[in-house]
Amino acid sequence: MSGFGKECAEVVRAARSGSYKLGLILGSGLGSLAEEVEDAVRIPYTRLPEFPVSSVTAHASELVAGHLEGVPVVILSGRAHYYEGGNPSVMRTPLETLKELGCDTLIATNAAGSLRERIKPGNPMLINDHINWSGLNPLIGEEDERRFLDMSEAYDPDVRAALKNAAAEVGEDLEEGVYMWFSGPSFETPSEIRMAQTLGADAVGMSTVPEVIMARFLGMKVGAISTITNMGAGLQAHGLSHDETKQMAPLGAAKIKKILRAYMQSIA
Questions:
Q1: Cα–Cα distance between 251 and 121 in angstroms, integer?
Q2: Helix H or strand E encompassing 208
Q3: Comparing C-alpha atoms, which of 207, 202, 199, 189 is closest to residue 134?
Q4: Lowest-confidence region among 24-33, 99-108, 257-266
Q5: pLDDT range class, residue 57, cuts 50, 70, 90
Q6: Binding residue per annotation — 238?
Q7: Would you call 81 a catalytic residue per the annotation?
Q8: Could you say which protein family the record assigns here (predicted)?
Q9: What value does the mean pLDDT of the chain take?
């Protein structure tokens, strides 16, 4: 632990006592889930030592602790991205805070572009593996041998199975696929999309991978779901924009909320 996670956890405990089970990172379109937390305390990131505040307009930058479906949860409503400051370990303190508060499982969500016809905009995709195309890593600079982290099952099989079961229970299709991380903030080129397809990626995005690496380093089990907001560059008739991401994200997010609630019911 860097120390800041413990300090942040103390701030949370001072506002609301108790231990927590599940941590959630809410990506674009999912902020409304944080508003549904029961018996909640809401702490702006600016009140938490060394917590990064996102410059992305769709991210609330607020920690919410309470209960959802009877499960004690800590929600990170919004994330900081590598492209905002060039630090791949920018989410270390938030993740250390979740771990310090007792969260043994992390569910990360994001907005992503699809590379496959079967995975359409407006639908969720369960991430079953990733490709770290950026080459960046939040563990660079770690001095002990824990940095040589096994990533064979970065996305926990039991968590993935539980999310698939939850999707079936609520009648939502949940395709699985490989997520490729590009650093952003510019969107990928059509040639980069063709390369990603060739390498086996099913979706591309600008977040999540460094968070997953850090969460696994901290000993947390991980699951992740993408909201598909568009097809990759060259796969749709029009160009890409962040406005499109913000417009399409709520469609897939509504489905993910149903899946997450069913998942939480299964672990309560």
A1: 9
A2: none
A3: 207
A4: 24-33
A5: low
A6: no
A7: yes
A8: Belongs to the PNP/MTAP phosphorylase family.
A9: 93
Beta bridge partners of residue 85, listed in sequence order: none
**SS3 track for 153-196:** CCCCHHHHHHHHHHHHHCCCCCEEEEEEECCCCCCCCHHHHHHH
Determine contact, residues 264/22, Cβ cutoff 8 Å. Answer: yes
* Residue 67 annotated in ligand binding: no
Q: Are 28 and 208 in contact (CB under 8 A)?
A: no
Q: Output the six-digit token pair for 123.
A: 């639908």
Catalytic residue among 230, 231, 233, 249: 230
Residue 130 is among the residues annotated as catalytic for this protein: no
Domains of the chain listed by start with CATH number: 4-267 (3.40.50.1580)
Give the number of C-alpha atoms closer than 13 A to the C-alpha of residue 63, restricted to the C-beta side. 27
Predicted structure pTM score: 0.94
Q: Is 17 a catalytic residue?
A: no
Asked if residue 188 belongs to a known ligand binding site, the reply is yes
59 given a catalytic annotation: yes
**Is 79 annotated in some ligand binding site?**
yes
Task: Evaluate whether 119 touches 210 at the Cβ level (below 8 Å).
Answer: no
Structural Rg of the chain based on CA atoms: 17
pLDDT category of residue 2 using cuts at 50, 70 and 90: low
Annotated catalytic residue within 60, 62, 81, 100: 81
Give the integer Cα–Cα distance in Å for 127 and 108. 10
Clarify whether 137 is annotated catalytic: no
Query: Any catalytic annotation for residue 132?
Result: no
Question: Does the pLDDT value for residue 194 go beyond 80?
Answer: yes
Q: Which of 59, 65, 167, 179 is catalytic?
A: 59
State yes or no: 169 annotated in a binding site: no
Concerning whether 151 is annotated as a catalytic residue, the answer is no
